[in-house]
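Retry 2 of 3 after timeout on previous attempt. Resubmitting structure tokens to design endpoint.
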């Protein structure tokens, strides 16, 4: 095994090694492939300069063990040695995609890495698959950020789009903006900016990977309004806020809270032009963090309270409606107005290749 791994960087392609791994799994020797994955990881691990041959071979091993029938135990064994948080997120998405909630006891059990268990739970929830897991008495789970999320989809989430994984790739659609154009001409109320650093960070949670790991940029603000904001004054009010992203805004549509959540989830799940996103579990968390902050929900409130706040707001969409947006494939423009019409929250984000 060490001989195979040590000579990998000098190999012109990894097809032979991948074929060997395939043959071993087909022959019922998934343990060999798990050992191969462990050996690869121990040689290169998370090294930023790891050769492409390693990255390709290791990804093939991970996909092979997580997507093949009857190899979940070996996948968990390998991940128990190799897994970091990112690897667990990825493996959880693969497992949930391939196994429909059946045969995943090893991956949800106490012997599996905690991060794998947490992510797998929510990857299954996102696919509306059965989950047999109750960790409320386990201290690690009570402190885990994903424990805030419910173990079933809420009406706000409807049926989210999640990637479909195969041995050679994956596919998922991008969420679309769903809105009905609203006219203008209404009286624009005075707006006093109230954005705190915590507000801005929470609102931008779903697009953080666009700005940190890709070419994206975003703006997030909250405002106190001097009078009730009516639908026919939303466009004028947004243009008057002084934000670069809203200069020359030429169209605003009345949207839905469900579509706002869908856009935020898609942004967090799949990432931007050069980022791979947070995947399902943490994408779900980021979408809830952003939509909660946009709606002005109480920090740390239970999801039921957050959802009520989100549903009570009026939502508006305007992705791509100013020259600030790149208009390639990654644009978000959202505004939430509180039920009394006196609070306005805005998120704009764009990315390009």
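Retry 2 succeeded. Sequence:
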């Amino acid at each position: 095994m060490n001989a195979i791994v040590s000579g990998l960087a000098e190999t012109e392609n990894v097809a032979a090694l991948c074929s060997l791994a395939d043959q071993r799994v087909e022959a019922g020797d998934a343990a060999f492939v798990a050992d191969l994955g462990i050996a690869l990881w121990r040689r290169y691990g998370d090294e930023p300069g790891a050769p492409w041959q390693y990255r390709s071979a290791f990804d093939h091993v991970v996909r092979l063990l997580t997507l093949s029938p009857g190899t979940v135990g070996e996948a968990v064994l390998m991940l128990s040695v190799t897994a970091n948080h990112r690897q667990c997120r990825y493996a959880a998405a693969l497992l949930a995609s391939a196994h429909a909630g059946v045969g995943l006891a090893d991956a949800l059990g106490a012997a599996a890495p905690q991060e794998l268990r947490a992510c797998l739970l929510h990857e299954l929830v996102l696919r509306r698959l059965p989950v047999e897991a109750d960790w409320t008495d386990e201290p690690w789970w009570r402190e885990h950020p994903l424990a805030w999320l419910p173990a079933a989809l809420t009406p706000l989430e409807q049926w989210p789009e999640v990637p479909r994984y195969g041995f050679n790739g994956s596919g998922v659609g991008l969420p679309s903006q769903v809105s009905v154009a609203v006219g203008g001409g209404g009286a624009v109320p005075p707006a006093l900016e109230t954005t705190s650093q915590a507000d801005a960070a929470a609102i931008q949670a779903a697009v953080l990977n666009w700005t940190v790991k890709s070419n994206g940029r975003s703006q997030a603000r909250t405002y106190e309004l001097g009078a009730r904001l009516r639908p026919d004054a939303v466009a004028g009010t947004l243009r008057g806020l002084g934000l670069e992203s809203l200069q020359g805004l030429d169209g605003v549509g009345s949207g839905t809270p469900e579509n706002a959540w869908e856009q935020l989830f898609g942004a967090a799940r799949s990432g931007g032009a050069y980022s791979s996103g947070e995947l399902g579990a943490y994408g779900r968390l980021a979408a809830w963090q952003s939509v909660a902050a946009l709606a002005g929900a109480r920090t740390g409130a239970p999801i039921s309270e957050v959802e009520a706040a989100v549903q009570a707001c009026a939502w508006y969409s305007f992705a791509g409606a100013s020259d600030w947006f790149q208009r390639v494939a990654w644009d978000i423009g959202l505004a939430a107005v509180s039920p009394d019409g006196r609070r306005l929250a805005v998120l704009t984000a764009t990315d390009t290749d």
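Attempt log closed. The radius of gyration is 23 Å.
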